[in-house]
Every structure is written in C-alpha cells, then in structure tokens.
Sequence to fold (302 residues):
Amino acid sequence: MKFLFSELINHEQEYWTFCMILFKTAHALQLHLSGPSFKKLSSGFVPTMGALHNGHLELIKHCKQAQQLTIASIFVNPTQFNDPADFTKYPVTIENDIRLLEAAGCDILFIPTVAEIYPQGFQPTMHYELGGLENILEGFYRPGHFQGVCQVVHRLVALVKPVHLYLGRKDYQQCMVIKKMLDLTGINVQVHIVPTVREQDGLAMSSRNMRLNETERKQALSIYRQMMIIKERITVEPVSALIEKARVSLFNDGFSKIDYVSIADPQSLLPVSQVRTGETALVLVAAFLNNVRLIDNIEIIG
Ligand code: AMP
Fold:
C-alpha cells in the first residue's frame, strides 16, 4: 500500500487514483477529513466487520460510483454479539481486507481499536427505542444485538460524519434498525441499501461462510433453495404450508437448528398469513449449520 498523501496533496487526481489511507485513531481521521482538500467533498461510508467479500465490495462500488470520497471501516463490534463464541470465532482477514479495499478504490480505511469506539467501556450511554423491530426475528433470537449495532453505527457515523451511508440488504432488519437509529438521534445521513450479492449458485455472500466446511457449504445452499420455492409457490400454496415445508427441507438438508423461516410484511417485518395478488412480502430465514448461523432474505410478490 502506498502512503503518498503528503506528496500528492496538490495533485488530487493522482491521489484518488493511487492510494488508500489507513487510520487507526479517530483523532487522526478527523484531522485529515477536516483538511481543506476534504471539507468540500461529499463522502460515503461503508461500515464493516471485515473478512471482506464481494458483498462488501459491492457497497464500496456503489459508494464510489456516486461520491468522490469513499470511507470504509473495519471493526468487529463486541457489543453486537449476544453469543461470545460467535465473537471469538468471527473471521479476521485484515491483510486481505486491506488489499481488497485498495484494489476496489476505497479512499480511506478506518480500523479503530475497541478503546477508540468505546472510550467509556461497553456500558451503553443510551437506549435506542427501536419499537417492535427489537423483539422480532433477529431481535428476538439475538437479544441485545440491535442495541449493539445502534451503539457502534451511531459512534462510527458521529466520528466519520459521512453524507451517505451504504448498507447491505442481506441484513434487511439491520438496515431498518439503523434507519430508525438515525431518525431517533437526528443524524442527517442519506442511507443507500445495496442488493444482496450472491455466489453463482445463489448462496448469499457472508463472512460466516468462511467457517463452513465443504459439506456445510453445499448444505448452506438449502436456504436459498427454500426461499426460491416459496417465491414460486406463494400464489398457489398457503403461507403456513410453505413455511412448514421449508423448515422440514432445511432440517433434511443438514441444518441443525432453525431460528425462523418467516414470510413478513416489508415495512413492519411482522408475519403475514397470506400474500395477496400483487402484494410484496419478504421471506426471511435464519438457521444454523452446526454452530454457524446464516441469515438471508428475498422479496416475493403474491
Ligand atoms: P458485516 O461486515 O457483516 O457487518 O457487513 C457490512 C455491510 O456489508 C453490511 O451493511 C452488510 O449488510 C453488507 N453485506 C454483507 N454481506 C452482503 C452481501 N452478500 N451483499 C450485500 N451486502 C452485504
């Protein structure tokens, strides 16, 4: 990686083309962003937990296509893991992440320490009133998870102060939660939701896929398969029957535990008992292959 900023400060065109700058402290990042060359630029922010794949890079791509300055962060946020084992096993591939981001043309990478994000410790300084979102689907099965997500995104956005924020539809409920947090806190950021990037066979890209062995990788595809069956059959079979069949098939295909298979309203995420002709709904799934928890969702039309 080239750190040519001091040489290229007067040749911004070259700077944009050649280097990504890495910051480990918020102070240095903010100093940099408050410089005269940056003040006038519109910035887009892509928060991540690293172990990057093409799904993350798609967010970078969208950001780059729309704005001049693309800022990514890598921070595995302890407060959003309700299961400590999931946190310790979360894949870390920092060297590769840096290479991928630089190749994707990311301008700035922020890799803060825990102390930088939580200077007062993990104890939350505020509770985010997320309403029903907090208690359904991911909220129900991962208590405290969304408070942790709000805590970290609130802090990151406050430090980075982006104009635009890029999030993946793969984490549909998380997108809704973050939008709600931004409303609650009055932070004015334009949120862009990027479609889910999938492997060729349909499996949604996820950092957790790295933890699957060869057999599990094949079994994992069952989530996509079941969602597509629901999509095809929604006009001819009752919702309850489709959900039951999907659950049975997931177990048959090797899933050890299913948190939910839900057909839900896209605004409230509450389960629907039917999808009327022309109506849009979501199929959302969360299930375990041994100890790896996978989630996915697709839109369907009745
Ligand atoms: P994570 O590193 O898992 O926290 O994800 C960082 C961002 O990338 C979040 O906004 C995710 O929704 C998004 N993301 C993760 N996987 C995908 C994917 N397969 N397609 C699109 N966006 C994704």
Remarks:
- The pocket of adenosine monophosphate is lined by residues 48-49, 55-56, 58-59, 167-168, 170-171, 194, 196-197, 204-207 (CB under 6 Å).
